[in-house]
Amino acid sequence: MNAFSYRPNSDHTQRMAPKRVLVIHYSQTGQLTDLLQRITGPLVEAGIHVDHLPIEPLVPFPFPWSRVAFFNAFPESTGREPMPLRPFSAAEGPYDLIILGYTIWYLNPSIPITSFLLHPQARGIIQGRPVLTVIGSRNMWVMAQEYVRERITALGGSLVGNIAVVDRSGNLTSVITIIRWMFWGRKDPFLVFPHAGIRSADIQGASRFGDLLADHLKGGSLEGINDALLRMGSARIKPTLLVLERRATFVFGKWRRFIMARAHANPQSRIRRVKFFSIALPMLIFLVAPLSALSVKVLGLVKGGTLRKEIEALLRY
Ligand SMILES: Cc1cc2nc3c(=O)[nH]c(=O)nc-3n(C[C@H](O)[C@H](O)[C@H](O)COP(=O)(O)O)c2cc1C
Description:
Layout: H1 12-16, E1 20-25, H2 31-45, E2 49-54, H3 67-72, H4 74-79, E3 97-102, E4 104-105, E5 108-109, H5 111-117, H6 122-126, E6 130-137, H7 142-154, E7 158-166, H8 171-184, H9 200-205, H10 207-219, H11 225-231, H12 239-260, H13 267-315
Parallel strand pairs: 1-2, 1-3, 3-6, 6-7
Antiparallel strand pairs: 4-5
This protein binds flavin mononucleotide.
């Protein structure tokens, strides 16, 4: 475990100074912002100073999305290619904790957050600091988190824990509700389908993590924070979703190469291929995913023990 305790300060005045937390995030519709507000609410109540650093693309993404714009974000999301961000600066540190909130785009961190993690200024903010990640997404986040963990380490930070709050609906149900939300901006329940996105009870319930964080910060040590968060249900990995996610990551690599194959010589070819992908991906999800899920269940029976051990390791920091 890579728990982080910050050194007690010998200077009395500094020891008495309020703890400081910096929240870095990008949220397009405000869902992740709500989640982070629930988590940081108890910190503010406990007298902890909370600063915010919203990350914004220089050219904002549209919302609701057009079909082409949505699928055209695929190559840069999966290729983890940075985009220009609006100039930003963090208030003078040092912070006792950095909370990095992000959402998942095509199994990767959203492009604005990848761009932050690759930005020349990121090191100055992250280096030497304990970092807690907060993910608000539909369901699969494990591969993205592995990348974020790598980047935080490369930037000289120390990942102390993760909170992943996801949509509790089934995989196919949430594909339908999220498409309606992203393309038409509608989150309300319809026909047999539930409200899109993370349930409001789960967003509200995330304040319990804030209570725990506040206690640890006030106590001056983040030692054991991830284990304590896990006991409160901060992150769960379903074995079947993990196998599906790994398969999808592999297939996404192939799609990315296909879309980008002639893009430099002929930009129109990228758009044509993105349009094809925008039809093929939903078809693949609805035709192939159920079969894949079945084979994953069988695999789960055969390799259940190994998978559980892998999941244990993926949840530890
Ligand atoms: C281009 C795009 C791709 C997305 N791909 C995924 C995905 O692969 N997996 C997932 O769980 N959610 C995916 N989402 C949903 C987001 O993770 C997130 O839940 C949603 O965009 C709302 O987040 P917000 O706080 O930024 O508004 C995607 C959203 C967008 C805009």
